[in-house]
Amino acid sequence: xxxxxxxxxxxxxxxxxxxxxxxxxxxxxxxxxxxxxxxxxxxxxxxxxxxxxxxxxxxxxxxxxxxxxxxxxxxxxxxxxxxxxxxxxxxxxxxxxxxxxxxxxxxxxxxxxxxxxxxxxxxxxxxxxxxxxxxxxxxxxxxxxxxxxxxxxxxxxxxxxxxxxxxxxxxxxxxxxxxxxxxxxxxxxxxxxxxxxxxxxxxxxxxxxxxxxxxxxxxxxxxxxxxxxxxxxxxxxxxxxxxxxxxxxxxxxxxxxxxxxxxxxxxxxxxxxxxxxxxxxxxxxxxxxxxxxxxxxxxxxxxxxxxxxxxxxxxxxxxxxxxxxxxxxxxxxxxxxxxxxxxxxxxxxxxxxxxxxxxxxxxxxxxxxxxxxxxxxxxxxxxxxxxxxxxxxxxxxxxxxxxxxxxxxxxxxxxxxxxxxxxxxxxxxxxxxxxxxxxxxxxxxxxxxxxxxxxxxxxxxxxxxxxxxxxxxxxxxxxxxxxxxxxxxxxxxxxxxxxxxxxxxxxxxxxxxxxxxxxxxxxxxxxxxxxxxxxxxxxxxxxxxxxxxxxxxxxxxxxxxxxxxxxxxxxxxxxxxxxxxxxxxxxxxxxxxxxxxxxxxxxxxxxxxxxxxxxxxxxxxxxxxxxxxxxxxxxxxxxxxxxxxxxxxxxxxxxxxxxxxxxxxxxxxxxxxxxxxxxxxxxxxxxxxxxxxxxxxxxxxxxxxxxxxxxxxxxxxxxxxxxxxxxxxxxxxxxxxxxxxxxxxxxxxxxxxxxxxxxxxxxxxxxxxxxxxxxxxxxxxxxxxxxxxxxxxxxxxxxxxxxxxxxxxxxxxxxxxxxxxxxxxxxxxxxxxxxxxxxx
Amino acid sequence: xxxxxxxxxxxxxxxxxxxxxxxxxxxxxxxxxxxxxxxxxxxxxxxxxxxxxxxxxxxxxxxxxxxxxxxxxxxxxxxxxxxxxxxxxxxxxxxxxxxxxxxxxxxxxxxxxxxxxxxxxxxxxxxxxxxxxxxxxxxxxxxxxxxxxxxxxxxxxxxxxxxxxxxxxxxxxxxxxxxxxxxxxxxxxxxxxxxxxxxxxxxxxxxxxxxxxxxxxxxxxxxxxxxxxxxxxxxxxxxx
Lengths: 840, 240
Fold this sequence. Notes:
Structural class of chain A: alpha+beta
CATH topology of chain B: Rossmann fold
Radius of gyration of chain B: 18 Å
Helix content of chain A: 40-55%
Number of helices of chain A: 24
Oligomer: heterodimer
Strand order of the largest sheet of chain A: 2-3-9-6-8-7
Strand content of chain B: 25-35%
Radius of gyration of chain A: 33 Å
Number of domains of chain B: 1
Largest sheet of chain B: 6 strands, mixed
Number of domains of chain A: 4
């Protein structure tokens, strides 16, 4: 066989590659940036996940954790646990801590002597926990996080009141190994001994106490077999079992979700970079016209020519991807210390194969999807180009094999984005959104070109030149519009989504949401609560309802772990849900199916359920839900479905029972109160004095916490998105460089005709400004649409358009990108005419 | 007046009523308007004529780089109309060597690699050895590993000549091979080209504006407006 195969192609490609990376810088940077973003986000998520897995035993403080709300394990259960391994019992609840007139909500934790079973608590001063917490001279000790002491104006050695008991603060908690970052905590930690808890008066029937039973099994035991045995032995226990695999489920979910979003943002950067890749390959092939024609003249078939250039592009792609992987792989090492601090997890650094593989796959597919068509154009370079200076117009439509390969790469890319997405629907939405955005900006480029061509010629020659540059053949408007457009759209989306949340949290919610939540009000305390509220000035609407906790255990008789539940409804079965009962339809409730029961209903258990969760669980009117309430299984039939607007932060319950089922169960009441800002402290003090066991949650503080967390996420997203914009700027710079020769020629001719450098600069500013303005306008529209879809349909929050936010973000980005573009053209402006004219 | 040459058993190039039309934005352009030409094995032919008269296009048609819109083209016994694009590439690889005014060496390859490429296309295992020998024949035996950028214009054209001849073509096409060279260097290249072509009985078709160079050929064809305006032995032409 003659030498037209891949071997010869590789030999020739290698020879050409000796020319170095010239002409490939933008190509490499675009690929490396996108791959680094994806690999970096993935590596970081993997390192946190690995930390959570490696430290699972420490985070769980045992091999298995059983938890109850309201109630404790039975003697029989406890005996069995104690016989199986070492056991530690911990109680957690929210409570009010006070010192003098200062009161604050804290996360109270009462621990027994064996605590911690596996991990450790770091305190200052360092001493055994039991010494610090135990009874000494008639006083119980307490440990507090520094924030508690600061807020209450205390120091170590002072007295701290929790509920009805006073504690001597004997130290500061610096770290609890079983407390990984709780993203939304409502208060800092106070730790006491379990023996001291009853004296606080906080543990009342139905009060929101979580009892945690941790079991450290003897070495070599099978934890899975142990939990399976527990389920068989105590089928009605109603406890929540956590094994090592879910030591920090909340944090893990959080990490997975943020990683998914950031990966999609990284993928956008890669797509934007893809446009740069396509441009770079196109101008590379353009620059190789003479070589390609020469090869053809001396007998190289088209297929060989294409292979030679495809191999070169693949080698460059491999280099770009390798650089991206290297940078991305280093992200955990750089960011780990910050994460460790924020999450309370010792982040492991290391090389994580999966995210690197994913980055490689994305990088290769993007390179193929964007570069194959321009590479294939090498085949169409006519050998006759050597005999005359031909301008070869690119084929309007690629050949069939190019179309097949490109389509396959695009489909593989889409499939990868969807399959690796935690939420397939969101992944599919991203793919669809990206496709639509590409199409929109491709059309926009055509439109800009057409409008520029049809516009009446302006008087100023510079303006005429600027307009002509927009539509002259051989320009690169498509690439510039696409890359800039995609980058700006992503920025708009992030800015608007975050802006909407922030606005909701800072201004809208505080207006409609109650000022306080009060929890753990005992039924016999209701008159005292009402009195305290009535005596405080400035109090508006007060609502109070009975509250219990229960776990959904079966749907239509099928245990939940075997039932089909969609991802967006999973949260409802993961842990205890709040329950209430009511004879009348609650204010603000909106029934979307079925009807409310009569006020005097006395019959088999009926329940009113959240319509959205019901859909996720495949439940309809008349179906049954089994709920374990305080160890008792209640089977209730769905009487109606409600559309719940959680965003008002009012009292909302997923499950509301009809009268006749829950009244006899131990319960507490929760209340909300709206109060003028200046009277908030007074109300909190009044309730604190009258009902020391009742915890008050300031909604404003909670919202500020959430706003802070969301702010951090938005910053992470913006950082990742800035990679997108950087890729866009690179693409623009590459596109400008590709037309550099033409621009230098223009500049020289204009100078010969008497134009000053400033005049030429003006023409360029007008040209880029027109593109920037048109693209920014469309990006704002496209980004706003996508943000509206995300905010209203995915996050279910009311959307308001924030023109200032969008304009400032996009405007700033456009100016930055144009400056980069102009910097690339500065050389053209400085060109001296004479040498160029002599060579012409 | 055109003098159609008759077909011959030892003809290397036969053009029969060759027309070439190209589409352009201004409409159809007739570049070649009925060429009839036969060139014999070992013959040297100069093609002269003003710019735009169709010289280069005729050469591209002979090399199979451009297809005739009408008429027949046979080179080295092969009807080029029967070949597809890859077939034409294969044909060039075996039968045709081309030398350009602008040399057109591949800048990323050394002189040796440039000359070896056509042999490598043909799957020859001794491509480098033969390339070295070809470069030796053009006096570049000491420049084997130099890149085009490291060679003078004359050296580049010699390397290009070595590349064109290394496959021992039946037909050597040269498009103003001395156009980019100074007079003395051009002279050396011409001597070399004629010597090598004669030594191998290679047919040489040469486009040139240089009357002196044209006069060195066996025959001179003058083109005008896409037609052969004159076809005469160089000696006869020189006497006019």
